[in-house]
Amino acid sequence: MKLDVKNVSKTYKGHVALQPFSLVVDAGTCTGLIGPNGAGKSTLMRLMTGMEEPDTGEILLNDKPISSMKKEIGYLPQYPAFYEWMTASEHLAFMGRLSGMAPSVLEHDIRTLLNKVGLAKRSNDRIATFSGGMKQRLGIAQALLHKPSLVIMDEPVSALDPVGRREVLSILDEIKNHTTLLISTHILSDAEEICQRFVIMTEGEKIEDAMIQDLLDRYSRQIIRLDAASMERGWVDHVAGLPFVESVNVTGRSMNIQLKDLVRDKGKLLQDALDHSVDIHKFEVGRDSLEEIFIRMVTKS
To answer: Which of 1-10, 25-34, 162-171, 214-223 is the least confident region?
Structure first.
């Protein structure tokens, strides 16, 4: 089902959380809603699920008001809540009954879903014994239980350790083949793995909406990537002040350098590093990553 967000806005006690915002999400696609903390992503998702009403505008699902289509929406909040004294099967059965699902259908679907999210062997264990990753997988099962046409997930992996993140991302990669999926995150690499399209937000405003390759084609610049045994602060400041250097970004022992004329000036940069006895491990021409593009766009805005 197509989701159509038309010029919605939201203000809380004088604070503008969401400026007039429009978005169309086509059926069968996976879209990443990307932005730093406080960008308005969670506010927009609460409006999309019908949990809150926008101050202006409207939201339609399959050309019908979102308030009348809630049964078609599956939602995973950033921090899903559970009755932790229940087992995984009991929790899903309880939520299914609240949704009006028949007991005979529930029994089969719960087994199928718990198997899908890798919790089949823990179905009769109390939720209190689950790790953070396991609870998030149970939350995904709950969001899918009533077979929604649209699944909305708010920061589904941001609070997880690397193992939990990998488990959940694998599940999301499989889910996107069967439903319309909208995921919010401030971790670009996560969305990059599973989404075809990025909608970038900051300060309650949409600043970009494009397919991944389009973003790379339009915003990625050629840069010099330099890795060294150590990155002395004095030399970094020196490089930033060179007349042929546009910008410098340092992460650990790696430096990304934007030159005013890469073809003309890359040799000068290399010679300068050698003159300063920099122990170079790698010196190569590369391009901005999606994360670097995102940081530049958000910082500029």
So the answer is: 162-171
Here the tokens at position 12 are 């809380």
Whole-angstrom Cα distance, residue 61 to residue 177? 19
Averaged pLDDT score across all residues of the chain: 90
Domain residue extents for the chain:
2-217, 220-300
Checking if the pLDDT of 301 tops 70, the result is no
* Displacement of CA 77 from its chain's centroid (Å): 13
Instruction: Kindly report, residue by residue over 139-154, the tens digit of the pLDDT.
Output: 999 999 988 999 999 8
Summarize pLDDT for 97-149 with one digit per residue, the tens: 988 888 888 889 999 999 988 899 999 999 999 988 889 889 999 999 988 99
C-alpha to C-alpha distance for 195 and 32, rounded to whole angstroms: 6
Beta strands in 26-157 (DSSP E): 30-34, 56-61, 64-65, 73-76, 150-154
Ordered alpha helix ranges (H), 145-184: 162-175
Strand partners, 256: 225, 249
- Side chain identity, residue 277: S
Q: Which fold has domain 220-300?
A: Alpha-Beta Plaits (3.30.70)
**pLDDT at site 300:** 72
Record the tokens describing residue 17, joined without a space: 């959380």
pTM given for the model: 0.81
pLDDT of residue 93: 93
Domains 2-217 and 220-300 share a fold: no
Domain 2-217, CATH: 3.40.50.300
Nearest CA to 106 among 94, 121, 118?
94
Please say whether the beta carbons of 3 and 48 come within 8 A.
yes
